[in-house]
Amino acid sequence: MREKRCAGCRFAVPIYMGDGDELMTACVYILRTGHRRPCPPGEACRVYEPAEAGMGTARKRKEIMG
Fold first, then answer.
1. Mind giving me the DSSP string for the chain?
2. Which of 9, 26, 37, 62 is the most buried (most CB within 10 A)?
């Protein structure tokens, strides 16, 4: 997913592809809620929630992994 809107969502986690220089964003809505995302990613997403202030990559991963 390369949508700019997704990068600011609480369900988005950055992942590194290839040699670590290419960054993509993965939607982990299903991991956090236990339900499929009911919409396509990007501008058409209806479950977008802004990430909390100070919610960096490490904190997002910790929230997912428990």
1. ---TGGGGBTTEEEEEETTTTEEEEEE-HHHHHSS--SS-SGGG-SS--BPPTT--HHHHHHHHH-
2. 9
Report d(CA 35, CA 53) in Å as an integer: 25
Tens of pLDDT, residues 3-56: 778 888 889 888 877 776 667 888 999 988 999 999 998 889 999 998 887 666
First-last CA distance in the chain: 24
* Sign of the CA dihedral running 36, 38, 43, 47: negative
Model pTM greater than 0.90? no
**61 is in which domain, residue-wise?**
5-65
